[in-house]
Amino acid sequence: MGRDSFFGDRVVWSGKPKLVHLPPLYYWGAIACAVIAVTMTLSALFVSLAIQVPVAGMLLFALWIATIGLAFWRLPLWWRSEQEYIITEKHIIIRRGRYRRFMDRSEISFARIHWHRSVSDIGDLELVRAVPTGALRRRITLTLTGVAAPDRVWAFVRGVTPAAPAGDGHRLLAQRLDEGERVLWSSHPASHWTRFVPHSARAVLSLLLGLFLVSSAFVMLVHSIAAIRSVLKAGLEPASTSFVAFATSIALSFFLLSATAFGVLYASVVRPVRLERLTRYLITDRRVLIQRGQEELHLDRERIVDVIDAPANGGLRDLFLVLDGRKARAFAASGAFGEEHGGGLQPVLKLVEDPEAVQEILKTAPKTAAA
Known about the structure:
Elements: E1 11-15, H1 24-51, H2 56-81, E2 84-88, E3 91-96, E4 99-104, E5 108-115, E6 122-129, E7 141-148, H3 150-158, E8 183-187, H4 201-233, H5 241-278, E9 279-284, E10 287-292, E11 295-300, E12 304-311, E13 317-325, E14 328-329, E15 348-352, H6 355-363
Antiparallel strand pairs: 1-2, 2-3, 3-4, 5-6, 5-11, 6-7, 8-9, 9-10, 10-11, 12-13, 13-14, 13-15
Helix pairs in contact: 1-2, 1-5, 4-5
């Protein structure tokens, strides 16, 4: 397939995004900006018609917010649509024009795959490199977004022949193993009532923020009803354009605040419990695999240098997998040192009922996949 012009390595695979999608943060940011812009425009219309004062500042603010929302919506799609992914003998490269990001294949610790919800053969492949913990910790990832059959691409990165069942995210992980790979242990996090209780300071703060936003939405509703009654008593006709604009702007503001409140509560309480119920663990003769809904973690066992056994609720155990990388032992975001970063899957087996059996399996030398 030729050689890369930058490194001179032989190219073993190349591709582009098959489906360009908007990241959730930008998606919801664009919606929030749109609602704020419409609310401000309607408020300006009400002020202009009912009070008859200049509203140029309000309209300028609405235009500014709408521009930010448009940027949230279009810029990530524009940037991702022109990306090109290249796998050489030694490197993984993301290229867009003169922009280039790369990672050494030998430095990759594990991969996360985020499957598309509606298209079963498309997903994002996130490659993670182990880094030092403590003051030197940092996050080094490389994400190939919107690629077809990301598990097949990950097989190319690992240097193995992709299995025939690979490429369908709706299949269970046990049905998409490498050729000749065997499952030695499988389980899921044991159920315990404490899963409904936030365990980290971040989760507690998110819960308190959600409750505060819910109470704020209730207070806003009470004051909004009083404001609408005052406007009607002042003689404004319910069928007039100014009243419709005023009522609609209040409704949109209440909707935005309520949606934010319930979104924060869902993310801090409901979502973690739901994801825990969907989590499945697999240990094969070659890898440690974790599946949680549309997200997967693929870790070659030869990267594991130690297992930290920590007590958990209900007499259960959490097993933190300590990884090894060049000039960097352990992985800060793995949680082995009491840290949590983001909501992505980490190399941690939580609430394990038979930790001794798992550690005994991980102590045995892993089988090497044939290239």
